[in-house]
């Protein structure tokens, strides 16, 4: 579905990402792993059009694409849920779910508020999320409820790829379960998911593929069932597999 080839990003004399190539396959969940400073956020921002690569290319469905903004990425079916959630606190749930994709009628002259409400209701129903009201500002909601709104917005976009940056961080057990169930459901509907997480238990539950970065470089791109929990930790921290069989799998 999405391929990055030889991506490099420099900020002045600092190289955040160096020669990264990877594939995100259709209808699969890819976990993007790495310690702090590994380059995960920089890579995601290039995939989402926030950063332009210093060199390298991004391909969607076999075609090279050039993105100048998150709106360009959204038009290609790529949407992201960042850790800061990017919600408008003073606006209600309905408005936040339609942000960036507000429906209109009468030739674009009038906002279609009925459609906005239907979109919000459908997205939250799909997630099985329970909120006190769709008409209250998100500033009055708990962290888990705000996370639900942000993920519902991504689901409502109907895109090909949903990117989630630490979606279960700081959530309660019930809210974490909701997020993981959404990831399972997105995959079941043929949507690709790229998830950044430090919670390896969650990664091993939902991921099909692992992309592991260290120091801005790819140290492994493997199927999740080809590695153990301990081997993933070793790759994240040391950038080296434990044994020869895994080394061959990583190299492949």
UniProtKB/TrEMBL annotation:
SMART domains per UniProt: AAA
Keyword Lyase: no
Domain ABC transporter: from-to ranges: 2-240
Any one GO molecular function term: ATP hydrolysis activity
CDD domains hit by this protein: ABC_Carb_Monos_I (cd03216)
Keyword Chaperone among record annotations: no
Any Pfam family: ABC_tran
Top-level division of the source organism's lineage: Bacteria
PROSITE patterns: ABC_TRANSPORTER_2
Signal sequence segment: none
Keywords from the UniProt entry: ATP-binding, Nucleotide-binding
Xref: InterPro entries: AAA+_ATPase, ABC_carbohydrate_import_ATPase, ABC_transporter-like_ATP-bd, P-loop_NTPase
Name of the molecule in the record: ATP-binding cassette domain-containing protein
